[in-house]
Write a structure and sequence with these properties.
Blueprint: H1 4-11, H2 46-49, H3 51-66, H4 75-100, H5 103-131, H6 134-154
Length: 155
């Protein structure tokens, strides 16, 4: 009486953990139409609602419809190219501003640079004098007094 169908069914082990059809229980607020209950609302994704994301998504969809593949550049390379473009644009703007300067402005800038250089030189000299040893300072004072004494009788 053992047919192949009945033998295979009897020899197969039964699964001790049957797979449940529904993992989560249904919430009870769906069945009740109680107006006092606050129903949960789906949270808004700030990324998807942002304007940049929408523009990017729209551009990707249009490129897909046209058959254009998106650029496969790494993000770092894109950022570096953008920085380089921005830097070139900034340099061009500065050059245009330089070209538009009048002769008076150019002359004033030259004088300002000369004054700044003189101030830096004076600061260096003062720092050297402050950092000089005591005997060098005394020797400088002696030279000045000797020169003053030599000039005094001549005049």
């Amino acid at each position: 009486m053992n047919t192949p169908d009945t033998v295979s069914k009897d020899t197969e082990p039964k699964d001790p953990f049957p797979i449940p059809r529904k993992i989560m229980a249904e919430p009870d607020y769906i069945d009740d139409d109680n107006p006092e209950l606050i129903r949960p609302q789906k949270l808004i994704n700030p990324v998807k609602s942002s304007r940049n994301h929408q523009d990017l998504h729209r551009e990707l969809l249009m490129n897909q419809k046209r058959g254009l593949a998106p650029q496969n550049k790494p993000e770092l390379q894109k950022v570096m190219e953008k920085r380089k473009r921005d830097q070139v644009i900034k340099q061009q703007k500065e050059e245009e501003a330089q070209k538009k300067k009048s002769d008076l402005e150019i002359e004033l800038l030259k004088r300002q640079q000369k004054l700044e250089q003189l101030e830096l030189e004076q600061q260096k000299i003062q720092e050297e004098q402050e950092n000089a040893p005591e005997f060098v300072k005394v020797k400088g004072n002696l030279r000045r007094t000797v020169q003053e004494a030599a000039e005094a009788p001549d005049s």
